[in-house]
Amino acid sequence: MPRHLIVLTATLLLAACQSAAPIRYYTLLPPTSADAAPAQDPAWQIVVDPVAVPAQVDTPYIVVREGRNALVPVDGQRWAAPLAEEVRAAIIDGIAGEVGASTINSAAADSRLPVYRLRVSLRRFDSVLGSQALIDAGWSIESTRDAKRNASCDSQVAVSIAAGFPALADGHQRALAELARRIASGLEALHAGRAASVCVAANKG
Fold it and tell me: What is the H or E stretch that residue 181 is in?
């Protein structure tokens, strides 16, 4: 290949690389607060199963809703980890901030403490730029030692957001924090023996 063509090709490739938009990563975990209370010995424990997320948004890319029926994955805007892992981590973080319980895997359960299993399935995880972040979830909690102590609930959280992807990620952080607060309220009701009022306790306020 003639030298001038080699130089031209290299120049075009370099220009293409330089003009490519950088990939930005977003997390659903809020920053750690310096004012967070120190961990205390838990009165009970929670096993959080892997979270189910809708297949349409289960991609590395942030998927935004456009109009009534379009879902668009956005190149260059990604979640920091698989969405299901991000959601689970955010829920665990939110519950830990609400109740005096530790999150464990089933193998690490302390036989001296009550243990509850939490399952969360997201039916919708909608992202509308400049409008709202919406989460529609079904979740269930049950005692691992008392089959009669269980409940299944539904929660929908919608948060208004400003324009831009940072605002979108922040909106979903706030929505998940609210979902975690509701689940924590339900867990407390179940632990107190009020299984019939778990969903009411979770979704009030």
Answer: helix 165-191
